[in-house]
Structure formats: structure tokens, C-alpha cells
Amino acid sequence: MSRREEILKALFCGETLHSLSQRPGMPRHPTLYGWMKRDPTFAAEVRWACEQRDFLQGKEPTPRQLRRMWEKG
User: Is the pLDDT assigned to residue 39 strictly greater than 80?
Assistant: First the structure.
């Protein structure tokens, strides 16, 4: 499994970028956010994994998430 896949799986399974960055061997959160800033595809994948995580946990989407979903639709 690639580092990218490992990050996305961890987010989907309930972690946050910050909690993930606390794991040994994982990039620190400034690095992860930097990757998101420089790579729009990675940023979209991270957003998707986080939205799925939140949905599975029963959390309501934020106004920002709702706006993004509306714009896609």
C-alpha cells in the first residue's frame, strides 16, 4: 500500500490529518497540508475520505461541505 493510500484509508477509518501526523513514521501535519495545497487531486481525495468518515460517524455536513456538494451536482 502506498503512503497516499495509507493516509486516505486512515482518514476514512476515523483519523484526522492531525491525529495521523502523530503516528510514528507519518509526515507531520504541516507536510500533509502542504501536499494538499500543491496537489489538487490529493486534496480532493482527502476531502472525500473525510466526508465519508463523517457520514459513517453520523455527523451532519458543514455548510462548506454542502456548498461543495451542491456545486458538483
Answer: yes
